[in-house]
Amino acid sequence: MGYILADEGSTNWIAQQVLRDFLTDAMPQGFREKLIGKFNLDRKIILEKLYNSPNPNLFLTSFADFFYENKNEHYLASIIKKGLETYINTYILPLLDQYPDAQIGLTGSVAYNVPWIG
User: Fold this and answer.
1) How many angstroms separate the CA atoms of 49 and 31, rounded?
2) Does residue 39 contact residue 65 with C-beta atoms inside 8 Å?
3) What is the CA radius of gyration of the chain?
4) What's the pTM value of the predicted model, to 2 decimals?
5) Residue-wise pLDDT tens digits, 60-80
6) Which residue ranges form the domains of the chain, and what is each CATH number?
């Protein structure tokens, strides 16, 4: 279904969660400071990139390296885990119920870089 409807656990999805938390002051201050230091973000920039640029998905994926570098931060690790659990429970497990002998493969930067997936 793609990154708009069914992309839980992807870099796009993780970025959506992080930016939502940024905009609502729901992330730890230390992580917020790292994010601002790396990307010089503020509310206006985020909303402009998401709602007025032709490719908001490129803005969301621009956080991939930062997420990789900070994947062991408790805040970010919990978001990654939640996304992957949601994806697996929503899409993978029902498929395995229907096709119990099927082999499942995951692709993408998150699947590649999260060691407990394999």
Assistant:
1) 21
2) no
3) 15
4) 0.84
5) 999 999 999 999 999 999 999
6) 2-113 (1.10.720.160)
